[in-house]
User: Which sequence fits this backbone?
């Protein structure tokens, strides 16, 4: 039995397709990104080794740090919005009728592609006949801002569709966690005279803290990688006001054929993402997991 | 809790529901209107006359090609991902070998990688083997990048299969191939369908790989295709609406039929991450 189940040929044969694909298409490119970062290269011609020049330049590149700042800001917004999602899930999970249907409605935007969402929201924000300005007009707003063309508000305008897109996703996760809390604990608290707010804050929240931490990681890391929606909605504009790390990298490589420098930015994106992931996992790590 | 309390709870839930669904309803409404109605009428008004010709116009305008490309590229990638992921997970969870934990860890690291960091080398690799503008590049990329998450969902299921199943099969003289293809693969059908749905949502909506590796209209998928298409119909909002509705419809239909699988898949792929 043991001999059959440790057949080396079989193990190799069954592992090979997945290992080759992941190795060649995920891990080798990551190493190459770091390597290309050391080159001056237009993507087609010969590479010229220039040492750490690109990396030093990235460190001093105002545009890079501005886009990193925008990614960071989106990460902060996304993390804060978790509180709204959590509040909605608490209401939803409190034995309310129709919660099944409501959760499905909330989830719907999550299924659409970021490109379709971006195109739809471009129309919603359209200054001449977008839905948003028409609704604002009912409330007497005469001169609404240019939602996607004003550098001071474009990042907020972009955040609303992000909020819209991911609401159902996080609500779903919180709802599932809340439903896992045994009814007896809640009943005991009620008998002891705890109010619904106290139960939510003192009992339910601590019990689902593990899941909340996971969603914080997801929200932050997801924001750092954000690309599709911004690329389609604004292309990073106006004047770089909505540029994020991934869109900056894309623009450098596939917009201006600056593959060497783009790779250095791509490598920085990788390093920053990994560092942030490790840090927030460390910070949010449980000393002792709450049990029930 | 009093009646006012319940009223307020439903009011806030209803507000969120309207916020979530109305943009999609609005999209559907304007896909059936003409420009005059869209520009002059209220955004909440129903179309005065249902203009299916918007759909006919964009379909004949060439969106059909993108649609079929999306269908087969999505489908073939799902098949490869499910097969290769199942094979690897079978070997990792059921076979006895020293490096299994290490190899599993390697696959799981793949979950943390930002795809944009790998984009430039992928492009140059495909360029050097002549796979730029070849849908094969897209299929293998989707397969590779979906393997870690698919394996992660499958792992939980494979760990729960009782050992007796293998023992009985081997004692009865079944080969390992037979054990995998005839016994384990069929009993994992429920979890495979969950992962298939997750893969479908990802592949159908994927943008950056196709946008980077494919420039010929013949091989573009719907996500990238609609982006160009919208530019082409810049001021014809009815046509733009129809284009977008066509691009989201298959996913919404899948959701209507398999909503439990979608919910299960999304939650199992997220919480364990």
Assistant:
């Amino acid at each position: 039995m043991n001999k059959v189940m440790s057949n080396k040929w079989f193990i190799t044969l069954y592992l090979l397709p997945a290992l080759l694909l992941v190795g060649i298409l995920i891990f080798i490119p990551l190493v190459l990104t770091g390597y290309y970062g050391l080159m001056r290269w237009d993507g087609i011609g010969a590479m010229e080794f220039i040492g750490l020049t690109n990396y030093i330049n990235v460190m001093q590149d105002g545009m890079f740090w501005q886009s990193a700042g925008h990614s960071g800001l989106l990460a902060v917004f996304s993390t804060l919005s978790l509180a709204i999602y959590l509040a909605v899930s608490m209401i939803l999970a409190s034995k309310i009728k129709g919660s099944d249907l409501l959760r499905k409605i909330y989830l719907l935007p999550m299924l659409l592609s970021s490109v379709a969402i971006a195109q739809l929201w471009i129309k919603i924000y359209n200054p001449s006949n977008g839905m948003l300005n028409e609704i604002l007009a009912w409330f007497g707003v005469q001169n609404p801002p240019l939602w996607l063309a004003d550098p001071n508000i474009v990042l907020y305008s972009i955040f609303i569709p992000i909020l819209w897109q991911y609401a159902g996703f996080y609500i779903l996760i919180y709802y599932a966690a809340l439903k896992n809390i045994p009814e007896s604990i809640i009943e005991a608290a009620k008998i002891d005279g705890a109010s619904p707010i106290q139960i939510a804050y003192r009992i339910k929240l601590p019990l689902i803290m593990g899941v909340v931490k996971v969603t914080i990681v997801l929200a932050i890391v997801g924001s750092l990688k954000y690309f599709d929606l911004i690329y389609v909605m604004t292309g990073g504009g106006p004047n770089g006001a909505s540029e994020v790390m991934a869109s900056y990298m894309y623009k450098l490589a596939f917009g201006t054929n600056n593959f060497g420098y783009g790779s250095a930015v791509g490598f920085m994106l990788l390093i920053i993402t990994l560092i942030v992931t490790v840090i927030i996992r460390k910070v949010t790590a449980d000393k002792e997991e709450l049990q029930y | 809790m009093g009646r006012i309390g319940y009223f307020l709870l439903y009011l806030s839930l209803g507000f969120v529901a309207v916020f979530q669904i109305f943009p999609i309803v609005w999209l559907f409404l304007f896909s059936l209107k003409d420009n005059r109605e869209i520009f002059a009428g209220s955004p909440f008004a129903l179309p005065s006359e249902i203009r299916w010709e918007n759909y006919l116009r964009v379909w004949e305008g060439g969106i059909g090609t993108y649609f079929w490309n999306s269908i087969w590229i999505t489908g073939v990638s799902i098949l490869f991902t499910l097969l290769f992921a199942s094979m690897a997970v079978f070997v990792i969870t059921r076979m006895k070998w020293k490096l299994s934990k290490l190899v599993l860890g390697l696959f799981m690291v793949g979950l943390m990688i930002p795809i944009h960091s790998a984009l430039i080398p992928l492009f140059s690799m495909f360029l050097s083997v002549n796979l730029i503008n070849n849908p094969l590049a897209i299929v293998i990329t989707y397969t590779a990048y979906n393997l870690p998450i698919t394996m992660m969902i499958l792992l939980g299921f494979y760990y729960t299969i009782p050992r007796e199943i293998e023992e009985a099969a081997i004692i009865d003289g079944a080969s390992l191939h037979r054990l995998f293809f005839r016994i384990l693969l069929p009993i994992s059908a429920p979890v495979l369908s969950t992962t298939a749905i997750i893969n479908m949502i990802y592949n159908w909506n994927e943008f950056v790989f196709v946008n980077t590796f494919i420039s010929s209209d013949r091989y573009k998928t719907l996500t990238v295709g609609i982006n160009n298409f919208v530019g082409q119909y810049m001021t014809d909002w009815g046509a733009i609406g129809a284009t977008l509705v066509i691009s989201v419809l298959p996913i919404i239909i899948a959701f209507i039929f398999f909503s439990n699988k979608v919910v299960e898949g999304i939650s199992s792929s997220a919480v364990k991450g």
Q: What stands out?
A: Chain B has a mean pLDDT of 90. Chain B has twelve helices and no strands. Residues 1-51 of chain B form one domain. Chain B touches chain A through 91 residues (CB under 8 Å).
